[in-house]
Specification:
Blueprint: E1 6-12, E2 17-25, H1 34-46, E3 51-53, H2 63-66
Amino acid sequence: EDRLVGVARTITDWVWCSYLADLAVSPDYERSGIGKKLIELVREKIGEQSMLLLLSVPTAMDYYPRVGFLRENRAFIIHRTK
């Protein structure tokens, strides 16, 4: 079956950090391991020298620690105004 069921989009400098800008899995395929596999593939591509970071939507805050992410306090944000 040729159907797109998940996507991971990452922006990286290949040295210091890689930003996982999007991670999405079709609702029909959630909890099947696709998201975790996409993260593994991203980590393979960026290598061990680059950290992987992301901003999580509130509904996914419990997911990311289960797939290896750590909560980090060293972050700053300017919230959007609209």
